[in-house]
Design goal:
Blueprint: H1 25-31, H2 42-57, H3 64-75, H4 83-96, H5 107-114, H6 119-132, H7 135-149, H8 154-170, H9 172-176, H10 179-186, H11 191-205, H12 209-219, H13 227-243, H14 256-262, H15 268-279, H16 286-300, H17 305-321, H18 323-326, H19 330-335, H20 342-355, H21 361-372, H22 377-393, H23 398-409, H24 415-431, H25 436-447, H26 453-466, H27 477-486, H28 489-505, H29 510-519, H30 526-538, H31 543-548, H32 550-557, H33 564-576, H34 621-629, E1 642-643, E2 647-648, E3 656-664, E4 668-677, E5 682-695, E6 700-705, E7 707-710, E8 716-723, E9 733-744, H35 750-755, H36 762-774, H37 779-784, H38 786-793, H39 800-812, H40 857-865, E10 878-879, E11 883-884, E12 892-900, E13 904-913, E14 918-931, E15 936-941, E16 943-946, E17 952-959, E18 968-980, E19 993-998, E20 1002-1004, E21 1010-1012, H41 1018-1025, E22 1031-1039, H42 1043-1054, E23 1057-1058, E24 1071-1080, E25 1084-1094, E26 1099-1108, H43 1111-1123
Antiparallel strand pairs: 1-3, 2-3, 3-4, 4-8, 5-7, 5-9, 6-8, 10-12, 11-12, 12-13, 13-17, 14-16, 14-18, 15-17, 18-19, 18-20, 21-24, 22-26, 23-24, 24-25, 25-26
Helix pairs in contact: 1-2, 2-4, 3-4, 4-6, 5-6, 6-8, 7-8, 8-11, 10-11, 11-13, 12-13, 13-15, 14-15, 15-16, 15-17, 16-17, 17-20, 20-21, 20-22, 21-23, 22-23, 22-24, 23-24, 23-25, 24-25, 25-26, 26-28, 27-28, 28-29, 28-30
């Protein structure tokens, strides 16, 4: 059958061309009109059907109308006598049957072909009829199918038997009536017919063990001639043997003689199948294994790679349970180490490692060393695991095996391969005490040049546990501290913890390690500094104190005897309702719960049940039980039987929102009242619910737990417990009255500050605590404590850089005297704030303050949540990279970061004043959104002052339709007041001049609403997403310089994460597939499969397939590409 070919250039003969390049559904459907021509052209019709089949198999979707029209057109081709075309027609009908209407009308033509004299027509007609028929029609053609099963032509008989397999799934009762015909077909001389007949007969009888046993008994007497059928029979025989018991009198297995006889069959596939079946028998003995091993040993020297692979893989499995039975094959397997097929060589190596003795270890290691460099990582992992098992088997050989693992650890390899080696060394260290010191040194050498953060941290943790127990712990300190100097923040933090473990366990090393830990106090990463501070304050240089304070030591480096989730719950309850007594860890429940405290809930989604705190979702009994067991008054109530859904006790929009959850115990009921205070001007204290149980006679109030304080918009709980007859389903009605003490708050300060206690960001909570503790409601105290007021809100009379330097010096060399701010030099340095950087080099992350690096959404979210105007915008979805709005070397350097929320966009303008003689005040950006119609300006936050070379930020917020990827162009004008600065004194003049500075335009594009999130296995992710919301279409991208340019353009347009390296296009490639993943605004996962093709004139065509969790998101991706 001829296919359309693309003409090759003479100088491009080596390039691969696809005959289906550039095929589009619309053009092929137009070509399908050829089916209606009075004079049919079989060759042309076959080509069109080929294209249609290609589109269907590539996942192209046809509408019902399109499929039905094509189907009717194809049926007209039955009038052609061309055999090749007729076979294509059969294929087309089978492919279109699920999506076309009125497929059944072709039945008459197919039934006519079933009775045709042409066997090829008959066989294909049977296949198609069984594919499209229903139960009603099947009874009409059953007679023809039975005749076909025993037909003399093997093609027709096989077609009928295979059709029986498919029909058995939908109409089993009808197919079971064919047993006599199928039994007769089993005796056929045609190999495939006998194979298909045996498989179908077993399928019919598979649920009847006795019938299967009789079938095997009758056929093992030698009536099966087909090698394929013989392999099937061996498998069925193995199944019967597994379900039978060994004879108590003779000790023989039923049918074992048959399996052993098959080892002498002339067909290799039968011999191997029998050998494999014998090796897989349960409880197989060495005597039973011997003939199978002998046959497999012969296969090891076969010239056919498939036989060598099958034999060595089977022997590898046998070596796991019967290594001594395989030792006779060792010489043959050693010759396979140099086999060109690396899979065979790997299996041979691992088998030898399992069967070798202690004296052969050295010889094997030499052979493996040369072999390892030639195989892929997945094979290397298998070898490493085999070596680990060998070392545990022969522990005296640990030196040579450990050295081998160390050598291959230094070679190139991926993460999984390196992890397998590390895991092996760790296991050997734990199980072979003599290997500890040499193993730890190998690990230390590895982390000196380790590219994988995870492995470095795991090794450092292991060093912290095992290193102090060695004879000379000090030799590991150099390796560990090198990680503090040379590695990334995650590894540095892990190294600090490891150093602390050495300090806590080895007193002689403590002074040296304390010097190293103090250096870590100035690390650039918060986590490293915090860990160093923690360990320096909890592990003291006085050994006696450490010995006397073993709780601290156990807390830092030991294992807690209470579940962490229970400890977290108890600590949060203690913080919510603090007392004068210190927290007692003995009060934490020690029972391990089956489910962790935090439930998997969607980001930003409010907890079910108003007032339920984030740590105790109102959805599971386990979490409620954990909460109640931490309250002493209810801890002896026994096991919680059930918790109800929250029941609302107040109307919507009331001052106080209250709902109740009923907790049912065997002889108690606890009412949990979840409360929220919605009045900003009020603080509620001593909150409780007075319950009237006069209409619930079987209940008696036992205890109550009031809520100490309920600030504005902070959830809280109060509880009332009742006793009831044990095991009795008592019922009743309860009246409820909320009682509390109201305290009016100064709205200008306290309500807003109290509201920030619930913020996630630590910086926000800490600032709220600071201000609440330093600013009191008594104005006289504030007036009398002007130093506090000046410190918080005034301006320091010393440069910040000098203050920072003095504080660092004070920390390095502390004294008993308090720090004196008057000791800070007041001289203004020539280069404030900026560190020693090359002249003209802009600071990294222009305008980003030290506490808010411009690299993570978390830090941006922390910054924005601290600004009242933006604190209610919800969860930050994405922050863009900074976009420069000014040229280099200009008077004012400005860039912008776009912060995307669900229904808002905030522009953060990072500014630097590069003119030493000027101070800018009241700095803001005037934004013209006339070309962004869907945006409306909501708020702006100007910058109070912008001194020379000090980064600052000003913000402008816009509102947009919720969840809509609105786009637009914004014009920007920097507006400010300029004040001249005296260079000699550094003081600015009182009067200033208002000025403006034009900035570059800014665009919000569709890619801003897409978060780059990769997937480890795109194929699994694609299949798990499912085709429910899949959208597929084709686009012409016009002329492009290369396919790589087209791929890059589409990736930038969508803003998604390329997967599996598919963003790289091979040179001179004519087609390419690119895989992308991401999260669309609204937290909807999106997967995209792009198929590109380029023709001679460099016109690029693209097929876009999108799968997502939301139909509208799939449509939105197509809209972006269509409009882009």
């Amino acid at each position: 059958m001829a296919l359309p070919l693309v003409k090759k250039d003479d100088d491009r003969d080596d390039e691969e061309y696809s005959p289906f390049l550039g095929i589009e559904k619309g053009s092929v459907l137009q070509e399908a009109r050829v089916f209606h021509d009075p004079q049919l052209d079989p060759r042309k019709c076959s080509q069109v059907i080929t294209k249609l089949l290609y589109l269907l198999n590539q996942g192209e979707t046809f509408t019902k109308v399109e499929a039905t029209e094509v189907f009717f057109a194809v049926t007209k081709l039955f009038q052609s006598r061309d055999i090749g075309l007729r076979r294509m027609v059969y294929l087309m009908i089978k492919e279109l049957s699920p999506c076309a209407d009125e497929v059944i009308i072709v039945t008459s033509s197919l039934m006519k072909d079933m009775n045709s004299k042409t066997d090829m027509y008959r066989a294909n007609a049977i296949r198609v009829l069984c594919r499209i028929t229903d139960g009603t029609l099947l009874t009409q053609i059953e007679r023809y199918l039975k005749q076909a099963i025993v037909d003399k032509n093997p093609v027709v008989a096989s077609a009928a038997l295979v059709s029986g397999f498919h029909l058995l799934q939908t109409n089993p009762e009808i197919v079971k009536r064919w047993s006599n015909e199928v039994q007769e077909a089993v005796q056929s001389r045609a190999a495939l017919v006998q194979f298909h007949a045996l498989a179908l007969l077993h399928q019919i009888r598979q649920n009847d063990r006795l019938a299967v046993s009789k079938l095997v008994t009758s056929l093992t007497r030698g009536t099966v001639r087909s090698p394929l059928a013989q392999c099937l029979l061996i498998r069925y025989t193995s199944q019967v043997i597994r379900e039978s018991s060994v004879s108590n009198q003779t000790g023989d297995r039923p049918f074992y003689d048959y399996l052993e006889g098959c080892l002498r069959h002339k067909a290799e596939m039968v011999i191997f199948e029998a050998a494999r079946a014998i090796t897989e028998l349960s409880g197989v003995t060495s005597r039973e294994l011997t003939p199978a091993i002998t046959v497999l040993q012969l296969f090891l020297s076969s010239s056919k790679p498939v036989l060598r692979f099958a034999a060595v893989r089977t022997l590898n499995k046998v070596a796991m349970t019967h290594p001594m039975a395989v030792t006779n094959c060792n010489i043959d397997m050693e010759s396979l180490i140099s086999d060109q097929n690396r899979s065979i060589a790997t299996l041979a190596i691992t088998t030898l490692l399992k069967t070798g003795n202690e004296s052969s270890v050295e010889r094997l290691m030499k052979q493996i060393t040369n072999f390892m460099s030639d195989i892929a990582d997945e094979f290397k992992i298998v070898v490493v695991e085999a070596i680990r098992s060998l070392c545990l088997k022969f522990p005296l050989k640990y030196r040579s095996l450990m050295n081998f693992l160390s050598n291959i650890l230094r070679e190139e390899g991926g993460f999984e391969y390196k992890k397998a080696i590390i895991d092996s060394i760790v296991i050997l260290i734990r199980d072979i005490p003599e290997a500890k010191e040499i193993g730890l040194l190998h690990l230390c050498e590895f982390i000196e040049d380790c590219e994988f953060t995870y492995l470095s941290t795991q090794i450092l943790h292991f060093l912290g546990i095992e290193g102090p127990k060695t004879s000379d712990p000090s030799k590991y300190i150099r390796y560990i501290y090198n990680r503090v100097i040379l590695e990334n923040a995650t590894v540095r933090a892990s190294a600090v913890s490891t150093l602390a473990m050495f300090a806590a366990m080895v007193d002689s090393l403590k002074p040296r390690i304390f010097v190293l830990l103090r250096r870590c106090l100035y690390d650039s990463d918060d986590e490293v500094r915090d860990r160093a501070t923690l360990y320096l304050n909890t592990i003291t240089e006085d050994s006696s104190i450490v010995e006397g304070n073993k709780d601290v030591k156990e807390f830092l480096f030991g294992s807690l005897d209470v579940p962490l989730v229970n400890l977290e719950t108890s600590l949060k309850n203690y913080i919510q309702e603090p007392s004068d007594d210190p927290f007692d860890i003995d009060s934490v429940p020690k029972e391990v719960k089956s489910q962790p405290l935090a439930e998997k809930k969607a980001p930003g989604k409010k907890p079910t049940g108003l007032g339920a705190p984030p740590t105790v979702p109102a959805s599971t009994v386990d979490n409620y039980e954990m909460l109640l067991s931490s309250i002493p008054e209810f801890s002896n109530f026994g096991r919680l039987f059930k918790s109800s859904a929250p029941v609302e006790l107040t109307e919507a929009e009331t001052e106080y929102a209250v709902n109740v959850v009923k907790h049912i115990f065997d002889s108690h009921v606890v009412f949990q009242y979840n409360c929220i205070n919605t009045i900003p001007e009020q603080l509620l204290e001593n909150v409780t619910v007075i319950v009237d149980a006069s209409e619930a006679e079987e209940f008696s109030e036992l205890a109550s737990k009031p809520l100490r304080a309920l600030p504005y918009d902070s959830p809280g709980q109060t509880f009332v417990a009742f006793e009831k007859p044990e095991g009795v389903p008592a019922v009743g009605k309860f009246s409820n009255m909320l009682r509390f003490i109201v305290k009016e708050l100064m709205i200008a300060k306290y309500p807003l500050l109290h509201g920030y206690f619930s913020k996630v960001a630590v910086l926000v909570r800490d600032r709220a605590t600071l201000y609440l503790n330093t600013i009191t409601e008594d104005s006289s105290i504030v007036e009398g404590n002007k130093d506090v007021k000046e410190f918080l809100f005034g301006s320091l009379d010393v440069p910040l850089v000098n203050l920072e330097t003095s504080l660092k010096n004070y920390i390095q060399e502390p004294s008993d005297d308090p720090f004196d701010i008057d000791s800070v030099p007041k001289e203004v340095k020539s280069q404030p704030l900026a560190e020693k950087k090359a002249p003209g080099k802009k600071p990294t992350g222009l305008g980003a303050p030290p506490t808010v690096p411009a690299s993570t959404v978390d830090n941006y979210e922390m910054l924005l949540s601290s600004i009242p105007e933006f604190s209610n915008f919800g969860r930050l979805f994405k922050s863009s990279a900074p976009v420069e709005l000014t040229e280099a070397e200009t008077e004012y350097a400005v860039n912008v970061v776009k912060h995307i929320f669900d229904s808002h966009v905030v522009f953060q303008y990072n500014c630097i004043n590069t003119i030493p003689e000027q101070l800018l005040e009241n700095v803001t950006v005037i934004v013209d959104a006339s070309e962004a119609e869907e945006f409306s300006e909501l708020a702006s936050k100007p910058l109070r002052a912008l001194p020379y070379d000090s980064p600052g930020q000003t913000f402008v917020a816009f509102e947009k339709p919720e969840g809509v990827p609105a786009v637009g162009k914004f014009s920007n004008m920097l507006r400010f007041i300029v004040k001249e600065v005296d260079p000699s004194t550094g003081e600015a003049e009182d009067d200033g001049v208002e000025d403006e500075y034009q900035l570059e335009d800014l665009e919000v594009v569709a890619a801003d609403y897409m978060l780059k999130v990769g997937v480890s296995n795109f194929r699994n992710a694609w299949e798990s997403m499912g085709p429910d919301y899949e959208r597929i279409d084709e686009y012409g991208l016009g002329p492009r310089e290369s396919l790589a340019e087209a791929v890059s353009t589409v990736i930038n347009l969508l803003g998604m994460q390329p997967c599996e390296g598919t963003e790289v296009v091979p040179s001179n490639s004519r087609s390419h597939t690119c895989l992308l993943s991401g999260v669309y605004i609204g937290n909807a996962k999106v997967l995209v499969r792009l198929s590109f093709g380029i023709d001679g004139p460099k016109e690029v065509a693209m097929k876009l397939a999108v799968r997502s969790e939301d139909e509208s998101v799939s449509d939105a991706i197509h809209d972006i590409v269509a409009s882009g």
